[in-house]
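Re: export button greyed out
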Amino acid sequence: MAEILSLLNLRFIFLVFLGSIAGLFVGAIPGLSVSMATALLVSITYTWETTDALATIMGVYVVGVFSGAVSAILINIPGAPSSVVTTLDGYPMAKRGESYKALYYATIYSFIGSLFGLVALAVLTGPISAIAIKFRPMDYFLLSLFGLATVGSVTSKNYTKGLVAAALGLLISMIGLDPLAGTPRLVFGVKELRAGISTVPALVGLFGFAEVLSVIYNGHMKQTVEHMDKTRVSLREVLRHWKLSVYTSLIGMLVGALPGAGGPVAAFISYNETKRLVKNPEVPFGEGAVEGIVASESSNNACIGGALIPMLTLAVPGDAVTAIILSVFYVHGLKPGPMFIRESASSFHAILVAGFLACFILLVLGLWVAPKICRIIAVPKNILLPVVTVLCVVGSFACNNRLFDVGLMFAFGLLGFLMRLRGYPQAPLVLALVLGKTMDSNFRRAMSLAAVAENPLMNLFGHPITLILLACTLFVVLGNIPFIKNLGKKKAQA
Amino acid sequence: MKKKCVLNNAMQEGIFFLLLSGWLLWYSLDAYGKSYIKDWAQSPSLFPVLVSGLLALFGVIILRQGLAQRDAAAEKKRTQPLQVLIILGMALAYYFALSVISLPYMAVTISGLTFSVSTFEVVTIVYLMVMMAYLGVRNKLAFTLVPVCSSAALSVIFRTMLRVLLP
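Workaround output, generated via the alternate export path:
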């Protein structure tokens, strides 16, 4: 306790605040991402004290994940993949002139989600890692497959189109060196492709530049200034959904604790669960239902604490940002693993204290500063779109300092535009792009292990966790087949 | 306006995905043939074959959906495809300008804050002006200030404050 209190000095608080401010803007500006900001911080904080570096990074991480929702709500461009679900209901609310209300909900439930995740990190590190450590390659593969199957079902009216988008994402994720043997795949002699498709330019293109092209294609240039309500929402009304928030935070924390499956999977699973639980929302899902924002923001912020659990106890990062934080640990000579909490207690406490401080700063910034950023949607689109294009160029270049990535961003923008034009959701493609390599390597590991086993089928599926994940995946896929769907509806009517 | 389709969107997409899956299968089998790893369980071609199978399945489903809707009339919306092509052309010109043009780097430091002018700033100002003019910005103040201020802001935030390289 004394150690925790000793961390609460002005310098530490100031660094968390500084990181939080940076996180707010990095998340809110289209084309910039928390992973990019954290990656930049690795080089900046190289010479700093470990606790100072962790304080700043936790500020960026906690507030950055939340502020992805700001751009998702205001301009329909998620700041991070985990905010993709927030666009589904947040942007329709902004278009209706309820951007303040949407931001209010996003702030409160991001705060609750972050707090939940960090409490879980402090309390449940042991038991959760005990489950996660039992995961086998087939389980990782099935978990990712479950995520993709779920994404396809929540983002498109036509389930097959959702799955096609996921398959395209898997295809793109295979570009580059194969994760196990190091053999080049689908690179066609282009040396820049050997490192694979960078997620940042792909994301910026799919959500940023594709939006620019879509707006121009639909000719919506004149209906630019959205009406913004000045009415305040009562906290009592907002907190009506606290039970849903706790439930989706739990999903987020659990999914976050599973390596590889981060905020996007958690947000989609939670959104799907919320759609199943809330039968009659005041506004339909996808048209501005606040329950959608509650689910998405609670779960993706709860992932922060969850994702840190395997990173600290197993040295396996839960998502892209924790992967970068892991490199900060190595730079500062820390060794994450089962003995980390005992050997580096001060660093563990610094993470927790900085995380909790960042949660409260998130609340202040979200309620006080984020609504001021609302003015961005009042800018006419014929001024905003050229600036967004430049931001997309800068964001995609800054990631690897390669002009090739800018070209990649434009290519993904065109792909995203064509997908929107034909009714294919982009979210499954993004998720598949992020998870593709993990799926590929784990699938092959599972197959290799099965090939040398006495009973290959039992080796692949004879494990309780595998069976549960397989059942969940089949449930989602079969539940979306029109014939079975109609059968269910007929039964319900009868 | 309603128009009857011979080969509707879904049919075109179904055929495209079938061709794509066929190509991916051919590519994977070809790579497998040339590879020294002959054990399928460890082969880098295993996952691409799996994905090509999935794409083929989805392609067939979409093609079937298209065939089922063949007689349905397609709704035609008012859209701006030419504008999209022009914007894409401008973006490509911007990209090539950033790659090809190389201006000398000039920097001015005022009260510790460095303002730099180089290829990115100049090309971005020109690009923003051209794009805004094309999209119909007629307000002279906005037409001048937005390109200059946004380029300067990006330059200061990225180059000076975050020490990030710009194109």
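The longest helix of chain A spans residues 99-132. The button fix ships in the next patch.
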